[in-house]
Structures are given as C-alpha cells and as structure tokens.
Amino acid sequence: MAPSFGTSGLRGLVTELTPELVTRYVQAFLASCPNGGRLYVGRDLRPSSPEIAGHVLAAARAVGIEAVDCGDLGTPALALAAMGAGAAAVMVTGSHIPADRNGLKFYLPGGEVSKADEAKIVAGYAAGVQPVQDGKTGALVTAEGLAGAYVERYATAFGAGALSGLTIGVYQHSSVAREAMMEICAALGARPVALARSEVFVPVDTEAVPPETRAAIRAWCAEMGLDAVISTDGDADRPLLADASGAVVPGDVLGVLTARALGAEVICTPVSSNAMVGRIPEFAEVRLTKIGSPFVIAAMEAALASDPAAKVAGFEANGGFLLGFTADGGLLKGPLIPLMTRDSVLPMLAPLAAAKAAGLTVAELVAALPPCFTAADRVQEIDRDKAKTFLDRLIAEAPARAVFFAPSGEIDSIDLTDGLRVNLVSGAVVHLRPSGNAPEFRIYAQAASPEAALALTQTYMDRVAAEVL
Fold first, then answer.
1. SS3 for 192?
2. Of 13, 7, 4, 9, which is closest to residue 381 (Cα–Cα)?
3. What is the dihedral of CA 395, 400, 403, 404, to 10 degrees?
4. Beta partners for 377?
5. Model's pTM, two decimal places?
6. pLDDT tens-digit profile of 116-139?
7. Reduced to 3 DSSP states, what percent helix, strand and coil does the chain have, rounded to the nearest 5?
8. According to the model, what pLDDT value does residue 1 have?
9. pLDDT at 10 over 90
10. Which of 145, 366, 168 is nearest to 249 (CA)?
C-alpha cells in the first residue's frame, strides 16, 4: 500500500518512501501551506531516518527555502523550536511502528497541520506543485541546542526540587529523547537511572505495552528500588510512566492527572479515552473527538475561538498531552507556555510532581481517581480489505453486532465518532478501530476493574484477529 496520511502524518514502508516521493510531498507542503521561509527538520533514531531527512532538507533548498537541520530530536522539541522561530517543520519518524516503516509529520509555523492542510498537501502532491521560487538554492543551517531548550522548558517551569529524593528509571531503548529524559529528571532533583539502552531501533508503543516489557519494568522497580519508570515512543510524543510497583499508568489517566494538576478547565480528548474524564469536578467541559491529534487540536482551537482565555488542554489515550494555555502557579515555579502538539514529558512530570507535592506515591494518586479502568492492544499485519469489510458489517448490521459481542452480554448503545464503540448493558465498553496509517487494528476496553478490562481486550483481540488476518 502506498504511503498515506493517517491520524498523525504520512506513513509508509521505507522502500516506498523514495527520494522522489519525499521530495514531492515536502515541496507540495511548502507550496500549499505557510512556511515562514524556513523549514526545520528533525528525525528519530530508526536507521532510515537520516537518509530521509537528507531528502527533506534537499527538497526545501531546491525551491529556495532555508533548511534547518535539527538532527536527532524529539517531535515536541522540534515543534517547540520551529513554532518559536515562526518556521515550518518536518519530523522524520514512524513513531511507534517497526523500523521497516517511516514517515513525515508536518508542522506549520503555528503548529500541527490540520486535516484540511493534509488535503491540500495531498492535492499538491498529485499535481506536482512547487513553491514560487527565484532560482536560488536555499541555505543549509545546522541548529544547536534545541534539545537543551526543551529540557530548560521543564526545568524552569517545575523547579529544581520538584522531584527531589526520587529515583526514576529511564527506559531508554531507542527513544530520541533518551538523553533529554535523563537531563530533565536530574534538573528537577531526581536521580535518573538509565535502563535498557538499545542501538537497534525498538518499536515501543506506549498504548499497547507488551507483557515482556511490563515484566521487565516490574523487575527493574523491584531490583533497584525505583520510585517510577518513565519512557517514550520512538519520536517522544507519547509517554510511558510506571509506578513503584512497575504498574504502567494508562496514557489517558496521565492526561487526567496532568490536566487537573495544571488547572485546565476545558478538556478535548478522543472518544477512546477513559470515561473518568467526565467525572472530574474541576473540568467544566469535556469535548470528545475523533482519534488523532489534528482532531484534538481542532476542538481546542474551537474552544479558544469561543473564549481566548479558556484554560484548554487536550490529551489522547496514548498519553500525548497538548497544552493550550499558559499554566502558572500551583505545582509550577514558573510559567509554562502553550504547546499544542503531543508531548510526552509533561504528562510524566506533572503526575510525578503532583504525587511528590502531596506526599503520595504515584499509585496512591491514581487510586484516588474515579474508578474506571482501561486496556488496549492491537492486531498487527492485518488484511486492510478484510478489516474494512468486517467493521462495515458490524456497523451496519445490528444482528451481526449482537453475535460478535455476545460473549460480553447485551449491547446498550453504540458510538460511531471514530470506528465502532460499543457500550454494553453491564457498563463495560469495547471500542474497535483500524489504524489510519499502519496495518493494525486497535481494540480498546473499559471496565470496572483492571482485570476485567484486560480480559475484554484479550477476548476481542482473538475475535478480531479471526476476522482480519
């Protein structure tokens, strides 16, 4: 299948991301969207990323745009730098998917591209459009200190003692932010311990942490007396936080804790997020969206258009957190300016700092939330045609739905905001959705206990696999 846009940028097999294809997409982006006359380019640590980044830089220079080589840099750090400079950006990353795939994430000077912007880019690619140019080659500039500026963002906002006395394991693997995480922990007073650094790319999906990784985290916590373990996916826009027992805190729970700790009042989050978000009294309004940061950002922008002073935040079930207002006071020692793109560091730091300030463990902080538990997993290497036929049938035919979900009892209602979300009479939820940019099928579950949510996920992993492989 040719590279295409999904929930977060352009994705495809490395073999399909040819120099010609990359060049045409980048030049279509520069021609179709504002760019500020400069293009910042970052990349993750997968083997194909340096070469693809080279094609992106060359594509910009060929049409007279100054190209800024940011090297190995996390997506939120790249976005922070480019937006601060009023420049466009492209992040070369396949995020959490395996190393045989890669992709491009596009940023306007004001932030992530919207779905409307994506449509313009795709149309421009098809037409082979290029920016109007004067025949000059754009300059090539090497950026320095961008990761350091990202570290300083959080060191200044949270202060030197925010995590003092804590020993935090940093599961480094091949995260492009592995050094930044170590530096941030140390800057906030914690003792960081490097864990499992890998020189081979590891496709870490923080939304579907495999059993062997969970077991390793539990073992590290027990053997080293860690207070927590933190990590990210490959391009550092999705967080992973485990408590002192090694239990991984779901990303949407991190989102709730972070939004509450920062004083957010209007929350924008996908329909797949934990339903507890609607039960937090501090949240005046919750807006549910389709899955994907462009949809969350669109909801945040709509809220800010109605009230520019609104304390708006967004998060996804994968934990990526989007800050739409300047947070100050409370936990913070200094102001934290908006960053409306998925960030992994903030939703790890805020719960850790909140627990520390309250004299609680992370587990105790989580336990105080309204009881609603989630689990998620994915069936990989699916047949996309089979997956579409299967899901279309469940959506269209009530009898087929009843049969498929019979192991979990009677269906109360369904929600078609994104995929098929089935609300069961028991109060449990099963949400089915094919990935928009990888051959994967996601299964989300919610139930009254962690064990019940996990059991639901496994039941429908098996049932979905029988239909889509």
1. strand
2. 13
3. -50
4. 443
5. 0.88
6. 999 999 999 999 998 887 789 999
7. 40, 25, 35
8. 63
9. yes
10. 366
Q: Could you tell me if 175 and 236 are in contact, meaning their C-beta atoms sit under 8 angstroms apart?
A: yes
- Residues 109 and 221 reside in one and the same domain: no
CA 74 to chain centre: 12
Question: 367, 387, 414 — which closes off a domain?
Answer: 367
Query: Tell me, what CATH number does 67's domain have?
Result: 3.40.120.10
Structure tokens at 110: 């004001």
Which of 242, 248, 249 shows the shortest CA–CA distance to 227? 242
Cα 386 from Cα 212, distance rounded (Å): 29
Same domain, 360 and 427: no
- 332 and 355 in one domain? yes
The residues with which 431 forms a beta bridge, in sequence order, are: 421, 444
- Please say if the pLDDT value at position 9 is more than 90: no
Q: Which residue has the higher pLDDT, 399 or 8?
A: 399
Catalytic residues: 95
Q: How far apart are CA 170 and CA 172, in angstroms?
A: 6
Average pLDDT, the chain: 95
With beta carbons less than 8 A apart as the criterion, state whether 70 and 81 touch: yes
Q: What pLDDT, in 10s, does the model give residues 235-254?
A: 999 999 999 999 999 999 99
* Pairwise CA distance, residues 469 & 462, whole Å: 11
CATH number at residue 430: 3.30.310.50
Are 230 and 249 in the same domain? yes
- Show which of 332, 367, 402 is a domain's final residue: 367
Question: In this structure, are 252 and 395 located in the same domain?
Answer: no
Shared domain for 192 and 224, answered yes or no, is yes
What are the tens digits of pLDDT across the range 176-206? 999 999 999 999 999 999 999 999 999 999 9
Q: Are residues 355 and 266 in the same domain?
A: yes
Number of folded domains that form the chain = 3
Domain that holds residue 50: 4-144
